[in-house]
Amino acid sequence: MSRFFRHISRVARILSTILLTIISHFGQPRRRKPGHSRLPKYQRTKFRLPWRIIALGLALVFLSLMELTLPSHHPVDAANAARTMQLPLSTQGSQLLDSLGRPILLRGVNWFGIETDLHAPHGLWKRDYKDMLAQIKSLGYNMIRLPFSIQSLRASEVSGIDFNIGSNRELYGKSPLEVMDAIIKEAQQQGILILLDCHQLNDQRIPPLWYGDGFTETDWIETWKILANRYRNQPNVIGADLKNEPHGPASWGTNDLATDWRLAAQRAGNAILAVNPNWLIVVEGVEKNVPGQRLATHWHGGNLEGVREYPVRLSNANKLVYSPHEYGPGVFNHSWFSEPSFPNNLEYRWEIAWNYIAREGIAPILIGEFGGKEVDPNSTEGVWKRRLVNYINRNNLSFAYWSWNPNSGDTGGILQDDWQSVEAPKQQLLQGLLIANNFAPNVGVAPIIPSISIPRPSFPPGITKPMPTPLPNSQPRSIGQMPIPTPSRQPSRSVAPLPPPLSNSTPRSVAPLPPPNLLTNPGVIPPLPAPLQSSNPGVTPPLPAPNLRVTPTQVTPLPLPSPLANPGLKEPLPLPSPSATPRDRAPLPSPPPDTNQALREPRPTPETSPNLPNPNLSTRSQTRNRVSLKVVPNLHSDWQEGFCIGIQVINEGSTKVEDWELTFQMNQAAINNSWNANFQPRNRENSQSSKDYVVTPLDWGRLIEPGQSRHLGFCANKLGSDYKPKQMLASGH
């Protein structure tokens, strides 16, 4: 291609030289032959001037063509980079290269939501998805790290989308995977790259390993293979971030097949490249358990100390990218933020933990997540963030900022709570990275990303999230997210409700995963694995216990898997016991939102392992007009000062419920925030001492068809030891 440009520019120079010679020739006075009379001056001018103008114009045209065909050495911003870089991408040493061998940098944001039980990117209850993508591009970002969960891709329904807003009507009736298709295709049209991120296995929490929560290693790898095949002709999908934030028992370089994340990444990465050799394979670090590691503590996914001695070995080494996550004290106040050497100790840590990989030319570094609320240079978090941004700039590192969403509770986002306005201080700080100096040169011609027809998959019936049994956790938070609980009456501001869910959301038993050799349809995500089957139709069985710990934050309303030692084997390994060492961030299970700010796991000291509410909480309701409703509570998290609980109201009858009401008793707790229903103390004049609560649905949630359910919940402050809700009864008519 560069040789072609040189030939074109050479021809343009020759033609322009000829034309300029013609111009100069017409500009010289002509000698008169003897005997010829001199023409009048006006006739001479009339004859020569048009030729000069024409020749000069042609010369300028060729000169312009010459300039357009010559590669420019001027930097371009990140938004233009996606249009000028030639795909697919590869690596060489510490650099990411486009297909012409030109160094490029990725400047991305994380737009989360598909991995939650909404099964769609958040904010579409407020915005047109095409407008959202256009705004991302307009601010200078050229990539979106798009989280998903395996469970979400196997579901058949989405929620949290206002289908009456603009282009969102195109998403009506689509499955989560088809919604992801639409996001990706529109990103292609707008010149935005997509990095897929297996953020969770189920839609509730980030597991420590690549299996668990009812999913096997085979499930994980097969899902990646299906996605690699599905998007192999969609070139703006550039790669696979294999697993978000391995932590706890996850190790690196131990050769333990049950825990060595490096070996699992090799197995998955090579399986993906066998299907789609164009993708980048993005491998995050672990938290600990690395032989010879020098730093005692790391963020989840931030420990890549073992790469030098124990590298990931792929079938194509030029597709490997390492990806640490890095956060400040707003997520968890690690000891190094209060050391006397702070902030000068930060770069020392970054070099040891992960940047030596780029500095020594082993592989490129993509910081897959970093973010925080503060940018003020007088705050510890602001100092940390400014140091990291400067470090990224000086070392020419790629990144994806956490997050685009404003509803990341401990980091906030690029957007404000109205999902429209930009957090100016954050964007101004990042803007220096978006005016990059190592993007592909602008050759004036955008690459044509071919449009493809994504096959419409045929899915098994939709599933709803299984109900976990929580365990305590003494670790710092993992930055997943809990979708936007809607403030009810506790913070008293009205919020426009979401549209009603479109399809059946009753939990169902699921079929086992077919053997890998049966997965011949690239457009079909296989059904859930056998461990999630239930002998009781209509009830989703429990999953292994998540490590959850949450402090409810005041909600500000918006202004407008079983493991396998070896791939392919079905013999489960024992799941490791939860670690009691510090960890960073773990997401709450995700209640469907009405809007607003998500809860993220803060930093209280946990108590002993909480128990679920009394089994009698899962009861048959009172019946009116022969309507049967079932109430299934799920204690999401329980810590020293408070707790959060999700509630599922299921219509197991044969007639629809047009309105319903839930009552319960709670002696020593006060609700501080709730979602998807109105929670009111029966004694409104003395709500703090009230023991009885009445819950009524929002307008869109009144109707429950046979076999459908409604999900709601609340968080509360503990006022004593007798805080758990009891005697939950639902009645409908």
UniProtKB/TrEMBL annotation:
The keyword Ribosomal protein does not apply. SMART domains: CBD_II. InterPro entries: CBD2, CBM2/CBM3_carb-bd_dom_sf, CBM2_carb-bd_dom_sf, GH, Glyco_hydro_5, Glyco_hydro_5_CS. Residues 459-625 are annotated as: Disordered. Pfam families: CBM_2 (PF00553), Cellulase (PF00150). SUPFAM superfamilies: (Trans)glycosidases (SSF51445), Carbohydrate-binding domain (SSF49384). It catalyses: Endohydrolysis of (1->4)-beta-D-glucosidic linkages in cellulose, lichenin and cereal beta-D-glucans. It comes from the Bacteria. Keywords: Carbohydrate metabolism, Cellulose degradation, Glycosidase, Hydrolase, Membrane, Polysaccharide degradation, Transmembrane, Transmembrane helix. Residues 622-733 form the CBM2 domain. Residues 606-625 have a biased composition (Polar residues). GO terms for biological process: cellulose catabolic process. This is cellulase.
